[in-house]
């Protein structure tokens, strides 16, 4: 392949990484549950494109399969499941927050700086596609974590968890051209099953507490 | 980078810039109105409607509220001339118009805050509750959009290492590299800032006199006749100038370097095309989104500020 | 024979003496003939003008002279020195105090002769002691002037000593000032004890020349840095040592506030620069010190302006805004240390010149605004913005002056506040040349905080001017307001002219600052030698960013003239007056205008973490419903009150040793004596 195309694809991966980071930020700032799911689907699409580009740059055919799986699971299956969950559970309203949105985002910004600083020595060592992207992946991961911390509803926590998985997947692809195929498949199925399990739990939670507010789950030692 | 001695061509370019902004700004307003009407299945009022409004206002008498001070009368002309002055300094017909060294991008942002401050002073002069409210809300929007604008322009100036707009444009057109993550983020933030600064829909509804939701209108409530016309005309120019700055930063290709008649004409043709496209984009955004609650506005602008800071950070990590 | 005024240093020293003499003789005269006070203040102002001249000369000639005067204790002569840095600050002192002094002549004319005379004496001694700080070249004379300055300013704050809050504010100030001096003294002691030029320690070690040869180990260098920052920070209002500022300024008379905030805060900036760059020396500083100072300055700027926005007393608003401005100056100094230590002298020089430029600007516009606040308070008899309003109708000229100050402090082009912030921003934009994510992010956050606080400043000062001068009068006092006296207007006019000059001719000002920057950092600013160089601001020639306030102002003026015509012509000048429209609500009163609190509401709403708020919203069945809102500086409940409780606890337990019998006390003294003697013997 021509080196020019290579450089172009490298830049594209960088671009996609930033878009991923941006979407993690967007998740922090969104107030509608359905927008959150849409952004999650968008993340899946970004991941698919990213995996495709890395597959071409690195010439690793197994990544093509990864891209396909990513597309099926993260762009189609999981969002559909989540949308149906939202519908069945009649969750419409807004995301409830523990910490107000601007403050969360300021904290998020510091998290980004922290992860960039943390990843800079690792990036020097990495010889793969885009060096700065490890920091970006780490930042996206921590931002999703931050979302899990600062949101009240159980379903937002699941979305945060899925976001973390996306970020991890992205970092793995860029740092080591992906994990072995078996591991990737396993993780993908894990996440899928996890989502089903969560879905079942949600119904149970609602029947027990008639609410999804996490504070009802705070006190686990009473029984 | 001092001003070169004025040649007739350069004087002509500056005069043309001023005229372009003065004449085209109301037309752009009209264009946005047409697209909005089209999107909501209404009959548009026509491209010239803002011009008709302005001319009618200029023919009317001036009604001055009781208890105004001299400041009230001085504000509209000063506001208007600050904005018109900015139209001489922003490059859009040429990459480097002769007066560009007078103001770098930071100064341009400063000029816009100067205009905003004068407008808010005029609004508070009479002491009506709505004027005060408008001024307060305008500043509430601005205290985050202004730093966001600065951070955005810092991000785009990182390639040239200079905040002078011509060198920013050159540095962005020279590179052949299409994917700049930080530019993507900066552009997103710029859209948010643009909507906030120009009182467009998610922040403020330009077409309403609904008392409790207005920002920009509330500041102009006491003005009438030519004074009101100056304020409105100035605001229209401000919108156009923001778009022009956006074009300078994010889509500068096709801007001519030398002041030959042909290249300037071709350049302004391309420019007009870009502006029509952007105007339709604004109309689309305004048709898709509902107005935000006023307390959500700082969140919106904070998002712009943080995004612009993030863009800056990403540049250091990914693009150096 | 050498004529006495050959060097700027001699001129400055003579003026110090003249100030002190005028103060002593003048206060006696004022006591006898009160009508003379206006002329005597004029005389002081004239002397200030000479001081400005001396500073200007020093900068123009780039002179660096030392002088040793036999005086004080034998074997311990006074060292004086006027280098470009001192000259710069002397120019600031002289030029900014001229306006304040002329103003004071009008401001104090209705006070009883005794108060007037005392204030005259204090003002003169205050000026003299500040000059002493700038000229000192050894630790003794520096500390002497420094303490004299603290003491005199304490008494200036206490002018209305009958009021309880004034006494409390003054006491807190004295406490902070002395705590700070102690830390500075430690810093000097550390520098002196490690800087022995030849052999044994001598009194010469305390001269600045000997201290500047000091070699410190890295931990000691850090210690000296911290001591200097905290010691001078107590004077400059660095967080969390700022609490005296917002209390002292409303308590002090307006001219005292103007001198305190406009000039005295700069002595702390000077002291910090002198110790860090001059005595400790650039080679011993570390880049991380710069980062610390940069971020501390940025946070301070944001905190200061947020609290300024919330104040409804105009003078507390200005006091908090001083915290913001000092924060900006510290940010610039930190930035310059960072750049200079990482090998970017050009950027470092620009940052440092931005900081010095801002110090000069702040001296002018803050003095102007404090004097303006003084006239507001004098004219209305009110201290609350909520009881002012509509003052522009009654006080058009002083209102116009204040408006210039408002535009400058908000950093709007083409004023001076814009110039200095522009320079600092250009310096932060050199961040890509640094290496490492942490360094760059720190500078980036500095820039983000700087632009945020400057945007907030515009909001704060719109509130200051909009609530105070615009709208309709909110009280009887505001309705009966009157324009201030002629000397007051002249004084404010001087400061306004200075503010405008600093804005319009930045290249000229920078050519003066250049000398000071070079003497501090060894880095040079570009010269402005090319054609029309004096009109341009071009820190990174030849292709760097440029701006030109004077061209900008000319351009705006050129455009505004036809627009004025446009505003009148088409309606054929037909004008009619009618009641304000206000959406047609009937009977608007002055009470329906925005209050100072409501103006800041979005800020309180948006930055809840910064404020500790107590809000009482009455319930529907409350018989006496009153809405109340109290916002307190969180440093009080979180830091100072616990600290005070701790102190009183310690003090109470120390009470136990106090038995009341003289022989027991003598035993204490005896035991202490024995202990000290044994320490001396077996050390």
List the helices and strands and how they pair.
The complex is a heterotrimer of chains A (223), B (320) and C (683).
Chain A: H1 3-29, H2 33-58, H3 62-88, H4 101-125, H5 133-150, H6 154-176, H7 181-209
Chain B: H1 8-39, H2 49-59, E1 62-65, H3 70-89, H4 105-125, H5 129-157, H6 165-174, H7 181-197, H8 216-220, H9 225-250, H10 261-288, H11 297-319
Chain C: H1 8-32, H2 37-61, E1 65-69, E2 78-82, H3 84-107, H4 113-135, H5 139-157, H6 164-193, H7 208-211, H8 218-236, H9 244-251, H10 254-281, H11 287-310, H12 314-341, H13 345-380, H14 391-394, H15 396-409, H16 416-428, H17 437-468, H18 476-479, H19 486-504, H20 506-521, H21 549-568, E3 575-578, H22 596-599, H23 601-606, E4 612-616, E5 628-632, H24 635-654, H25 662-682
How would you describe this protein?
The complex is a heterotrimer of chains A (223), B (320) and C (683). Chain A has 223 residues and is mostly helical. Chain A has one domain (3-217). Chain A contains seven helices and no strands. Chain A is globular, with a radius of gyration of 18 Å. Chain A starts with a helix and ends in a 14-residue tail after the last helix. In chain A, 44% of the residues are buried. With 320 residues, chain B is mainly alpha-helical. Chain B has one domain (8-319). Chain B is built from eleven helices and one strand. Chain B has helices at residues 8-39, 49-59, 70-89, 105-125, 129-157, 165-174, 181-197, 216-220, 225-250, 261-288, 297-319; one strand at residues 62-65. In chain B, helix 7 (181-197) runs antiparallel to helix 9. By secondary structure, chain C is mainly alpha-helical. In chain C, a hairpin with an 8-residue loop joins strand 1 and strand 2 (78-82). The model of chain C has no long low-confidence stretch (mean pLDDT 88). Among the domains of chain C are: 1-137; 139-196 and 204-268, no CATH class; 635-682. In chain C, helix 3 (84-107) runs antiparallel to helix 19 (486-504). Chain C contains 25 helices and five strands. In chain C, 68% of the residues lie in helices and 4% in strands. Classes of the chains: A mainly alpha (223), B mainly alpha (320), C mainly alpha (683). Chains in contact: A-B, A-C, B-C.
């Amino acid at each position: 392949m021509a080196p020019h195309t290579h450089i172009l694809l490298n830049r594209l991966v960088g671009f996609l990484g930033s878009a991923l980071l941006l979407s993690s930020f967007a998740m922090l700032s969104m107030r509608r549950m359905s927008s959150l799911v849409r952004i999650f689907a968008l993340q899946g699409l970004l991941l698919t494109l990213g995996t495709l580009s890395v597959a071409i740059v690195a010439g690793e055919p197994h990544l093509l399969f990864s891209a396909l799986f990513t597309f099926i699971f993260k762009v189609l299956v999981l969002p559909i499941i989540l949308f149906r969950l939202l519908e069945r559970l009649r969750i419409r309203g807004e995301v409830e927050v523990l910490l107000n949105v601007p403050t969360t985002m300021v904290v998020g910004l510091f998290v980004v700086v922290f992860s960039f600083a943390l990843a800079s020595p690792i990036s020097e060592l990495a010889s793969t596609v885009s060096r700065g992207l490890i920091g970006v992946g780490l930042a996206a991961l921590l931002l999703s974590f931050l979302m899990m911390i600062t949101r009240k509803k159980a379903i937002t926590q699941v979305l945060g968890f899925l976001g973390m998985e996306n970020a991890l997947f992205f970092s793995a692809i860029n740092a080591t051209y992906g994990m072995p195929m078996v591991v990737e498949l396993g993780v993908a199925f894990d996440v899928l099953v996890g989502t089903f399990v969560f879905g079942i739990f949600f119904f149970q939670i609602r029947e027990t507490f008639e609410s999804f507010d996490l504070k009802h789950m705070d006190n686990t030692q009473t029984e | 980078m001092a001003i070169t001695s004025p040649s007739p061509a350069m004087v002509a370019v500056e005069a043309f810039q001023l005229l372009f902004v003065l004449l085209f700004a109301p037309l752009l307003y009209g264009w946005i109105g047409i697209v909005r009407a089209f999107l909501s299945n209404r009959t548009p009022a026509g491209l010239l409607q803002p011009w008709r409004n302005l001319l009618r206002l200029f023919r009317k008498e001036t009604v001055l509220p009781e208890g105004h001070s001299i400041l009230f009368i001085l504000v509209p002309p000063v506001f208007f001339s600050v904005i018109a002055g900015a139209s001489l300094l922003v490059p859009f017909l040429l990459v480097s118009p002769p007066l560009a060294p007078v103001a770098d991008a930071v100064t341009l942002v400063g000029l816009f805050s100067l205009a905003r401050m004068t407008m808010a002073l005029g609004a508070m002069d009479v002491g009506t509750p709505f004027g005060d409210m408008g001024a307060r809300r305008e500043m509430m929007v601005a205290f985050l959009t202004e730093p966001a604008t600065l951070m955005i322009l810092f991000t785009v100036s990182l390639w040239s290492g200079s905040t002078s707009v011509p060198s920013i444009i050159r540095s962005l057109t020279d590179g052949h590299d299409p994917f700049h993550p930080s530019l993507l983020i900066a552009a997103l933030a710029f859209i948010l800032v643009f909507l906030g600064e120009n009182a467009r829909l998610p922040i403020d509804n330009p077409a309403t006199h609904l008392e409790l939701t207005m920002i920009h209108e509330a500041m102009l409530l006491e003005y009438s006749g030519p004074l009101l016309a100056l304020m409105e005309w100035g605001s229209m120019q401000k919108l156009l100038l923001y778009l022009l700055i956006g074009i300078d930063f994010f889509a500068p290709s096709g801007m001519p370097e030398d002041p030959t008649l042909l290249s300037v004409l071709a350049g302004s043709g391309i420019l007009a095309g870009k502006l029509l496209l952007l105007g339709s984009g604004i109309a689309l955004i305004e048709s898709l989104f509902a107005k935000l609650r006023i307390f959500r506005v700082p969140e919106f602008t904070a998002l712009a500020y943080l995004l612009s800071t993030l863009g800056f950070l990403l540049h250091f990590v990914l693009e150096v | 024979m050498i004529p006495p005024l050959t060097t700027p240093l001699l001129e400055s020293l003579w003026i110090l003496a003249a100030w002190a003499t005028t103060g002593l003789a003048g206060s006696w005269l004022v006591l006898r003939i009160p009508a003379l006070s206006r002329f005597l203040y004029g005389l002081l102002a004239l002397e200030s003008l000479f001081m400005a001249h001396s500073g200007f000369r020093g900068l123009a000639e780039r002179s660096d002279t030392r002088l040793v005067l036999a005086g004080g204790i034998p074997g311990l002569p006074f060292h004086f020195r006027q280098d470009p840095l001192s000259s710069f600050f002397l120019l600031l002192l002289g030029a900014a105090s001229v306006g304040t002094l002329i103003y004071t002549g009008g401001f104090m004319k209705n006070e009883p002769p005794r108060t007037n005379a005392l204030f005259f004496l204090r003002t003169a001694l205050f000026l003299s002691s500040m000059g002493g700080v700038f000229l000192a070249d050894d630790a003794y004379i520096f500390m002497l002037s420094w303490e004299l300055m603290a003491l005199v300013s304490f008494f200036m704050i206490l002018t209305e000593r009958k009021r309880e809050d004034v006494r409390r504010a003054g006491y807190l100030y004295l406490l902070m000032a002395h705590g700070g001096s102690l830390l500075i003294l430690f810093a000097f002691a550390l520098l002196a004890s490690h800087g022995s030029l030849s052999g044994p320690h001598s009194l010469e070690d305390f001269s600045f020349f000997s201290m500047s040869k000091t070699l410190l180990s890295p931990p000691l260098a850090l210690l000296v840095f911290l001591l200097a920052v905290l010691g001078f920070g107590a004077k400059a209002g660095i967080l969390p040592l700022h609490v005296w500022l917002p209390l002292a300024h409303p308590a002090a008379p307006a001219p005292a506030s103007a001198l305190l905030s406009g000039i005295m805060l700069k002595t702390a900036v000077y002291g910090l620069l002198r110790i860090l760059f001059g005595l400790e020396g650039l080679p011993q500083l570390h880049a991380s010190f710069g980062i610390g100072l940069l971020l501390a300055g940025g946070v301070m700027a944001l905190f200061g302006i947020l609290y300024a926005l919330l104040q409804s007393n105009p003078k507390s608003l200005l006091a908090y805004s001083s915290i913001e401005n000092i924060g900006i100056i510290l940010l610039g100094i930190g930035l310059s240390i960072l750049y200079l230590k990482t090998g970017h002298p050009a950027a470092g020089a620009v940052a440092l010149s931005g900081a010095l430029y801002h110090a000069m600007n702040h001296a002018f516009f803050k003095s102007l605004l404090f004097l303006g606040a003084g006239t507001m308070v004098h004219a209305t008899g009110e201290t609350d913005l909520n009881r002012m309003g509509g003052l522009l109708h009654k006080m058009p000229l002083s209102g116009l002056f204040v408006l210039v100050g408002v535009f400058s402090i908000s950093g709007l082009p083409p004023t001076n506040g814009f110039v200095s912030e522009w320079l600092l921003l250009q310096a932060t934009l050199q961040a890509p040349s640094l290496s490492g994510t942490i360094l760059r992010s720190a500078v980036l956050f500095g820039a983000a905080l700087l632009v945020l606080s400057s945007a907030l400043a515009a909001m704060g000062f719109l509130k200051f001017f909009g609530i105070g001068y615009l709208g309709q009068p909110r009280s009887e006092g505001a309705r009966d307001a009157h324009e201030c006296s002629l000397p007051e207007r002249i004084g404010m006019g001087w400061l306004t002219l200075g503010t405008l000059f600093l804005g319009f001719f930045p290249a000229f000002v920078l050519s003066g600052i250049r000398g000071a920057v070079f003497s501090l950092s060894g880095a040079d600013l570009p010269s402005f030698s090319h054609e029309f160089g004096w009109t341009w601001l071009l820190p990174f020639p030849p292709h760097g960013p440029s701006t030109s306030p004077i061209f900008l102002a000319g351009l705006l003026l050129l455009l505004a003239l036809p627009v004025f015509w446009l505003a009148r012509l088409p309606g054929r000048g037909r004008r009619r007056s009618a009641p304000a429209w206000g959406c047609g609500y009937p009977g608007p009163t002055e009470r329906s205008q925005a209050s100072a609190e409501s103006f800041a509401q979005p800020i309180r709403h948006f930055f809840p973490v910064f404020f500790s708020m107590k809000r009482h919203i009455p319930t529907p069945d409350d018989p006496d419903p009153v809405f109340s809102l109290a916002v307190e500086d969180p440093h009080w409940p979180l830091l100072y009150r616990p600290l005070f409780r701790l102190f009183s606890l310690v003090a109470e337990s120390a009470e136990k040793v106090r038995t009341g019998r003289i022989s027991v006390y003598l035993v204490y003294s005896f035991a202490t004596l024995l202990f000290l003697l044994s320490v001396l013997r077996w050390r």
